[in-house]
Amino acid sequence: MRLEGKVAIVTGSGGGLGRAMATALAGEGAVVIAADVDAPSMKQTVDEIKGIGGKATGVHCDVTRLGDVQAMVATAIGEFGRIDILVNNAGGGRFDGGERFLRGISIGNLDKTISLNLKGTMLCTLAVMPI
Q1: Which of 43, 80, 102, 124 is deepest in the core (most CB within 10 A)?
Q2: Cα(131)–Cα(119) distance, integer angstroms
Q3: What is the rounded CA–CA span in Å between residue 9 and residue 73?
Q4: Are 121 and 89 a contacting pair, CB within 8 Å?
Q5: What is the pLDDT of residue 104?
Q6: How does DSSP classify residue 14?
Q7: CA distance linking residue 39 with residue 114, whole number of Å
Q8: What is the CATH number of domain 7-128?
């Protein structure tokens, strides 16, 4: 197991690529902090990891909220004493329909998308860097 003893945070780990990456990291021996805004999906990821003999903790985290990010990092440090890996997976788009991309997006959804994809990544990275 190449990642034995390492601690990994995976944001957006409630499904899709995030769940796959969290499970793969656990399969290589890492302890995983599965972070997601969707608590039931995040719990499924934790259960899946535990089902393969891995170790995981679920944390509710909206990466666009500094307090949530700080709590996620505090959980990792409090439970495991370290953070070795950060996977900034949380992201996506909140676009309205429409004939074309630019015609279909509202300014409000553009702001939410930029916050999720840019601000969320920066908040998580900045919170983990000193550790």
Answers
A1: 124
A2: 19
A3: 8
A4: no
A5: 66
A6: T
A7: 23
A8: 3.40.50.720
**Separation of alpha carbons 120 and 33, rounded Å:** 16
Of 66, 45, 84, 38, which Cα lies nearest the Cα of 122?
66
Strands (E), the chain: 7-11, 31-36, 56-60, 85-87
Place of tokens 């916050």: 115
Q: Looking at residue 99, what is its pLDDT? A: 47
Return d(Cα 59, Cα 55) in angstroms, integer.
14
- Measure the CA–CA gap between 10 and 99, rounded to whole angstroms: 34
Provide the pLDDT for residue 68. Answer: 98
Q: Which residues of the chain have pLDDT under 50?
A: 98-99
Encoded tokens for 50: 């535990």
Q: What is the pTM of this model?
A: 0.91
